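To whoever is on call:

I kicked off a structure prediction for a single chain this morning and the downstream step that reads the tokens threw a length-mismatch warning. I double-checked the sequence; it's 145 residues and nothing unusual in it as far as I can see. Pasting both halves so you can look.
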Amino acid sequence: MTHHEQDEAELRRHIERIIDAIGAKDPDALRQLYAADVVSFDVEPPLQHVGIDSKLRNWINAFAVFDRLSYEVRELQFAVGDDVAFGHGFGRLSGVLQNGATTPGMWVRVSYGFRRIDGRWSLVHDHVSVPFDVTTGKGVADLEP
């Protein structure tokens, strides 16, 4: 296995740890996986969330809406360099809401930017987007990978 293949395997484990922390509703575990100065382009306003506290506030808000939740990532691809890497795929947050209703969630496009900081990979940027219909200006939430 080449050095870059080993790094890609570690990056995939990093995303798996994020998925596990989301399912456990564990912001402390998430804090360990993002850079302190992470910049997130999430689906919730504003246009960008800067810093780990802002990013975690988004997850804490989601945790408050869900009784149980899971996050799924499909078709994850990586390009890996020596100290930077990026990935892209599709993500879906789903589960049981606090009111007992089950939601299948919707598929969104996700991009991840990583930097190797002090010898370990850290998530420095993520971007989540929903396709939209240009004629109506409305998001299209029923697409699947």
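Update from on-call: the warning came from a stale cache, not from the record. Cleared it. Sanity check on the structure: The longest strand covers residues 66-80.
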